[in-house]
Amino acid sequence: MTRVYMDHNATTPLAEAVADKMMAVLREEFGNPSSVHHFGQRAKAVVDEARSAVAELVGGDPSEVIFTSGGTESDNFALRGAAEALEPSGRRQLVSSGIEHEAVLNTLKALARRGWQSTMLPVGATGLVTAEGLTAALTDQTALVSIMHANNEIGTIQPVAELTRLAKARGAVVHTDAVQTAGKIPVNVRALGVDLLSISAHKFYGPKGVGALWVRRGLRLLPFMTGGKQERGRRSGTENVAAIAGMGVAARLAMAKMAEEALRLGALRDRLEQRILQAVPGTAVNGDPGTRVPNTSNISFDRVEAESLLIALDLEGVAVSTGSACSSGTLEPSHVLKAMGLPTHRTQNSIRFSLGAANTEAEVDRVVAVLPGVVDKLRSLTRTPVRG
Ligand SMILES: Cc1ncc(COP(=O)(O)O)c(C=O)c1O
C-alpha cells in the first residue's frame, strides 16, 4: 500500500540535501569545534556556516543564535534562563496563553513551583490572543511574556509584533515559540520585536534533536546547561556538528522554497478542507481561517472519536494526528480546543491534517475519497444523531 503522510507538524522527513550533508559531516568532519587545530577548526567552520543560515532564516545575527537539542530545550532555556536572570528585578509574573505547547506550559508549571506566578491569557474561539487580553494581564510585576508564533494543532498565527510592543512598553522580556512557523512562513525577529525565539529543525526537513534559540544581543539570560562554555558559555556541551550542519542546509532550502511552497500548500490545504466539509456532514474547521499557517487544517468530526478515526485512517494508509491525547485509555480533550472554549463534541473529535513537501493533489483527493466511508462506519457504531 502506498501511504499518505499528512502529519508534518509532528515532524518532517529529512530533505535529501540535508541527509547528504549530514553523512558527509559525520564521515569527514569529526573534529571538536572547540579544538584549536585543523580538525577542530574545520568542524567549527561547519557550525558557523549553519549558524549564519539559521540567523538568516529568522532575520537575526549569527552571534545571536544558540544551538540546542530542539524546540523543547529552546523553550525551556528561554523561560528558565530569562526567569532566573530576572530574579533580582523582583518581578515575579510570567504571562502566557492556554494554547501553548507543553514545552512552555510544563516549564511554566515548574517555575510556579519555585514561586513564579503565571497568568494565562484567554484566547478567542479561533485561538487568537488579543491585545486587550494582554493589556489587562500586564502589570509592573510582569517579567516575561511567552506567546507562540503559530499553534501546532490549529495553525493560528498570533499577532506577536503587536503583543510584543505592549509587553515591552511595560518592561517585560518577550519570548515566542516559532517552532511551527520558522521555515514555513517568513519569520523576522526584528519585525516581531521579540527578545527570544525558539526554532526546531525537524519541523522543516532537518534532523530531529537539534534546534536553536535566537537571543537578542544584550539580553541577559542565565544558562541552564553549564559545563565547557560552548555557544559563548550559554549552552555547554560538544556540538552535534552533523545535526547542526543538517539544520543549516534545511534552513537554506526553506528560504529558497518558502514563498512558492506556502502558496502550493495553502491551495492543497484549502482543497482538502473544502472537499471534506462538502463530503462529510457534521464537520467543522477549528482555528482562524484568515490567520493560519498554510499547511494546517484542524477539523472536528461530530460523533467520531478522534483516536478511532486516526486508527481507521491509518489502516487506509493515511497518517494524520489527533489534537487529543490518549492517556491510560481515556481520551483527553485537546487542551488547545478546550482553551478556545469549544464544546466537548469538538474538542474530543478533532483531527489535524498537516501538509508538506511530498503531498500532491492526488493524495488530497485520495484522503477525501476514503474519509466519508470511514466516518460513516465509525458513526454507525454510535447512536447519537449528527449535530449540525
Ligand atoms: C509549537 C511547538 N513547540 C515546541 C515543540 C517541541 O519541539 P521539539 O520536538 O524539537 O522538542 C513542538 C513540537 O511538536 C511544537 O510544535
Q: How many structural domains in the coordinates?
A: 2
Mean pLDDT: 95
Question: CATH superfamily of the largest domain, please?
Answer: Type I PLP-dependent aspartate aminotransferase-like (Major domain)
Percent of residues in beta strands: 15-25%
Q: Summarize the biggest pleated sheet.
A: 7 strands, mixed
Number of helices: 12
- Could you say which structural class the secondary elements and strand pairing correspond to? alpha/beta
Shape annotation: globular
Helix content: 40-55%
> Any idea what the CATH architecture of the largest domain is?
3-Layer(aba) Sandwich
Cα-to-Cα separation, first versus last residue: 35 Å
Key descriptive features of the protein:
alpha/beta, Aspartate Aminotransferase, domain 2, 388 residues, 15 strands, Aspartate Aminotransferase, domain 1, binds pyridoxal-5'-phosphate
